[in-house]
Amino acid sequence: MRDKRTILKVQRDLKTYFFTFDGIAKAVDGVNFEIAEGETFGLVGETGCGKSVTALSILRLVDPPGRVVSGEILFDGEDLLRIKEKEMRHIRGNKIGMIFQDPMSSLNPVITVGFQLKESIKLHQGIREGKAESLATEILEKVRIPEPSKIMKRYPHELSGGMQQRVMIAIALCCHPKLIIADEPTTALDVTIQAQILRLIRDLKHDIGSSMLMITHNLGLISKCCDRVGIMYAGNLVEVCDVAAVFSEPLHPYTRGLIEAIPKVNVRCESLPVIAGRIPDIFNPPKGCKFQPRCKEDGPGCLGEIPALQEVKPGHWVACGCLRSNEGFLR
């Protein structure tokens, strides 16, 4: 993947803050990563760590009182934060497709599935009703919806959760985008349907040759569909590496804590390991490394500035103050 052209580059410490009456919530507080053509990059972290806000920042969909305060988001070499809103509307849906977490809140409940799908096609491809109708039916067939001509006439509430998510995937992919952003696409579904939807997304991504940003808290999902992964904690990326390395050789203490907490098959235990302490206050985070109050590897290098990502091994980046004060913990 490193030899392929970069399609998305988030750089210069992307920061997205929410300015509220209670203070400034630093939802995304200095994030940098890139995605190559055809690559699937996973963004993993617990609820509230800034994953979804990162995705909304890329699409410029952060509503007030939130706003991007610094950083660059280069898509195909063009900074999305500097272009006009008219140009951004052309990119959304056309060049960057978004699969949202909850299809029922994303689909319009009073408009038929077919109308919503056709409107997306007509808006971004500039074609007429008859052609849009045939393309909409075709994309519904591709997402493996039976009897697509009948489904076109139905409203979202008349479909199951799995069918609604397939419609969302159809809308996101109908214009063959260069980049797909999937924000927790299987969270609201049962396990059997999750596997079907995940396989469908993976197959369609391969068919149209898109890159993907997969946002999830599920490490199992990451292991099945991603090439590289970024571990996010309290608005910062703490580790970026190949997906195999995050399971075989996790280096950041937070990443190791996540891996240790995964239940092991054929291993009996009274209780699962946990990461001690609490997630930091988003309005008043600790100085230096935000994981420092919960970290077993606490060292003097953790108390100054927020640690920057360092390449400790080829393709393996870690942001940890202990790298400066106690490099031996990596061995």
Task: Describe this protein with a few key phrases.
alpha/beta, disordered C terminus, eight-stranded mixed sheet
Secondary structure: elements and pairs:
Layout: E1 6-20, E2 23-36, E3 40-44, H1 51-58, E4 66-75, E5 78-79, H2 85-91, E6 96-99, H3 103-106, H4 113-125, H5 129-142, H6 148-151, H7 161-173, E7 179-183, H8 191-208, E8 211-216, H9 219-225, E9 228-233, E10 236-242, H10 243-248, H11 253-260, E11 310-313, E12 316-318, H12 322-325
Parallel strand pairs: 3-8, 3-9, 6-7, 7-8
Antiparallel strand pairs: 1-2, 1-4, 4-5, 9-10, 10-12, 11-12
- State Rg: 21 Å
- What string gives the helices and strands in order? EEEHEEHEHHHHHEHEHEEHHEEH
Derived structural class: alpha/beta
Strand content: 15-25%
Structure description:
- Mean pLDDT is 89; it is low at 325-331.
- This protein has helices at 51-58, 85-91, 103-106, 113-125, 129-142, 148-151, 161-173, 191-208, 219-225, 243-248, 253-260, 322-325; strands at residues 6-20, 23-36, 40-44, 66-75, 78-79, 96-99, 179-183, 211-216, 228-233, 236-242, 310-313, 316-318.
- Among the domains are: 103-174, no CATH class; 247-330, no CATH class.
- Helix 4 (113-125) crosses helix 5 (129-142), helix 5 crosses helix 7 (161-173) and helix 7 (161-173) runs parallel beside helix 8 (191-208).
- 32% of the residues lie in helices and 24% in strands.
- With 331 residues, it is of the alpha/beta class.
- An eight-stranded mixed sheet has the order 6-7-8-3-9-10-12-11, sandwiched between helices.
- The protein is built from twelve helices and twelve strands.
